[in-house]
Design brief:
Blueprint lengths: L4 E10 L2 E11 L4 E5 L6 H9 L6 E6 L5 E4 L11 H6 L9 H9 L13 H13 L5 E5 L7 H13 L3 E5 L3 H7 L2 E6 L2 E5 L6 H32 L5 H20 L20 E12 L2 E12 L3 E5 L6 H8 L7 E6 L5 E4 L12 H6 L5 E4 L2 E4 H7 L16 H14 L4 E5 L7 H13 L3 E5 L3 H7 L2 E7 L2 E6 L2 H8 L25 H7 L4 H28 L4 H4 L1 H37 L1
Parallel strand pairs: 3-7, 3-8, 5-6, 6-7, 12-18, 12-19, 14-17, 17-18
Antiparallel strand pairs: 1-2, 1-4, 8-9, 10-11, 10-13, 15-16, 19-20
Helix pairs in contact: 7-8, 17-19
């Protein structure tokens, strides 16, 4: 079948700099396409061109006759409507179901009677989601749909989009959301698009292979230039016409290298460590906190030790930030006691970026208004050099924070927080507006961080990669600590984070655990099968062999001359590496799930 919507050879330039240079998208019926790219690469602009809201300098947009297209903006405008319901219903055609508007709004925590003037950013976003979903369009264009949503809303939206008959183009920084939904991936990089007919789970390995091949081609080009330069300096000077031709060819090669748009740099993150704290950081005994008649934290007892990475999860309004403030001593409990360890140096990254002076410049925010140097890891660094670590250009030093994008503000907050000496990092929704590459580097930095991390997040993948323990909201002010990440918490209690208005522990139908194949054994037999016992015994040896295979493949691919000498050998080694890494990840997940099951049975 022909595509429902096609963008061909799209070019767009802003301020003299090309943003899109031949970008293309084709979306077929019921296809779910993930649009991936760095912050500032032009993803949102390309989506607006697909929606017909921005006109390209050059290129073609084709929508099949009769195909309806709906677009979710990052900042919806409801000002022209008397209430939220009217805003949602304004998208309806004659034969659309009028009841669907209220159904969707209820799922998203809105009644429809809200005044648009009093909505928060998150509520406006939920209303906009209801508006684009309600008419069930043929093509849905969604720009960061999970922003400002809590975990119950994100997981509900996932299921809603899986059931939808609409084709989907999705921009998101939420890895788990992309992995669970995408059937194909379009990578927007340096103005051009590449398509992978697989979901997001396969994207990062594919991207790395593409970049490695680019680097190899660039290396070959550099060697060719060096050979031509050598010939010009030392070659025979006769046969003038041939000389002129080779000089011109060298000039072309240099121009090719000069104009080649290389991959944007990566963020360099290093946390500044303070003096080592005591082993016991925080000890809460029976702490409670109420606001009016509502108890947000009820009789919580827990201990935080040096090196812990504790994730706090719950629906919006449950009291995650309140619990965070209680544990760090910023807020006093109504009852119970809190003991803090000695020599604590706490640095907080707040979700609203309130620590930033929006009227000040980027430099003033980093140096806190003192000179042009910033102290990092106990040493002074010029602010421009430090800015470059977080992908800011020297020209942005005097840029007011007010004009920075959401992603740029997120990187600036990280730069501020990581420059301060700390042995406790408090991160309240740190992943907001960060692109996937920056998230990767933040995760690596946290893994290397010598101190303790307290983290509030709705990003399931980030929690799985970072947290060693998860504190989950259980309802009625109660909080429970579970070992492991978010998926481990789901495995242990049998369901994820529930919406605040729903009963915390469903009696009839609980959410399925992450590992469906293990659930029946947990519920019925309460013992390991022969197959599971065998897997537990043999998986460690298999994982060790896979690690050796990966190391051998990496060693082979490290030879820069391999591709030119043996293209088939290069391809075989690349395939071996890709397969071994995928098999190792699967084996590690299987072993972890079986080990958790074994411990549960042993402790039952």
């Amino acid at each position: 079948m022909p595509p429902l919507l096609t963008l061909s050879d799209i070019h767009l330039t802003f301020g003299g700099t090309p943003l899109l240079e031949g970008a293309e998208i084709a979306i077929g019926p019921r296809e779910r396409l993930s649009l991936i790219g760095r912050n500032g690469s032009g993803k949102s602009t390309l989506l607006k061109i697909a929606a017909g809201l921005v006109e390209a300098d050059r290129g073609e947009r084709v929508v099949q006759q009769g195909v309806s297209v709906a677009y979710l903006p990052q900042e919806p405008d409801l000002s022209a409507y008397p209430n939220v319901l009217a805003y949602v219903e304004s998208a309806f055609a004659e034969h659309d179901d009028p009841h669907r508007a209220r159904t969707l709004l209820n799922h998203l925590g809105l009644s429809g009677e809200e005044n648009p003037k009093s909505l928060s950013g998150g509520e406006a976003r939920r209303a906009a989601l209801a508006r684009v979903l309600a008419p069930a369009p043929d093509v849905l264009l969604l720009d960061e749909p999970t922003n400002h949503l809590d975990l119950p809303a994100i997981e509900w939206l996932e299921e809603e989009l899986k059931r939808s008959r609409s084709a989907l183009v999705l921009i998101s920084h939420d890895r788990r959301f992309l992995t669970n939904l995408g059937t194909a991936t379009v990578w927007l990089d340096r103005g051009r698009t590449r398509r992978l007919d697989q979901g997001f789970a396969a994207f990062e390995d594919w991207r790395d292979e593409v970049l490695a091949q680019e680097e190899l081609e660039r290396h070959k080009l550099d060697r060719k230039i060096a050979a031509e330069e050598h010939w010009i300096r030392h070659g025979v000077s006769g046969r003038r016409k041939r000389n002129v031709r080779r000089v011109a060819a060298l000039a072309d090669l240099r121009q090719e290298r000069r104009e080649g748009r290389r991959v944007a740099g990566t963020v360099e993150m290093t946390a500044t460590d303070a003096a080592i704290s005591s082993k016991l950081l925080m000890e809460a005994k029976g702490i409670s906190k109420s606001f009016g008649e509502r108890t947000v934290v009820r009789d919580v007892t827990m201990t935080v030790l040096r090196g812990d990475r504790i994730g706090i999860v719950g629906p919006n309004g449950a009291g995650k930030t309140t619990l965070l403030k209680l544990l760090t001593g910023e807020l006093a409990p109504d009852t119970g006691t809190l003991k803090l360890g000695a020599s604590l140096e706490i640095v907080t990254l707040d979700q609203r970026r309130e620590a930033l002076d929006v009227n000040g410049t980027l430099m003033q925010n980093l140096t806190r208004g003192h000179g042009d140097h910033v102290m990092v890891a106990g040493k002074p660094r010029h602010v421009v050099g430090y800015m470059k670590d977080f992908l800011f250009t020297p020209e942005q030093a005097n840029t007011p924070v007010a004009v920075l994008s959401g992603g740029e503000r997120g990187r600036l907050m990280l730069a501020r927080a990581l420059s301060l000496p700390s042995n406790v990092l408090v991160l309240d929704e740190p992943t907001n507006d960060l692109d996937l590459e920056t998230l990767d580097l933040l995760q690596e930095m946290l893994a290397d961080y010598a101190g303790t991390v307290l983290l509030v997040s709705h990003d399931r993948d980030f929690l799985d990669r970072v947290a060693t323990n998860v504190v989950a909201f259980e309802g009625d002010g109660r909080w429970q600590l579970y070992p492991g990440g978010y998926a481990d918490m789901v495995n242990q209690r049998g369901y994820g984070v529930q919406a605040l208005s729903q009963p915390t522990r469903p009696a009839a139908k609980a959410e399925k655990p992450a590992s469906d194949d293990l659930a029946p054994e947990r519920q019925q037999k309460r013992k390991l099968t022969f197959k599971q016992k065998h897997a537990l015994e043999t998986l460690p040896a298999r994982m060790e062999q896979l690690r050796k295979d990966i190391a051998a493949a990496n060693k082979k691919l490290a030879d820069p001359a391999l591709y030119s000498r043996d293209p088939k050998g290069f391809a075989a080694a690349s395939e071996t590496l890709h397969t071994a890494e995928a098999d190792l990840a699967a084996a590690e997940n299987e072993w972890l799930e079986l080990e958790i099951l074994r411990e549960e049975i042993a402790n039952a």
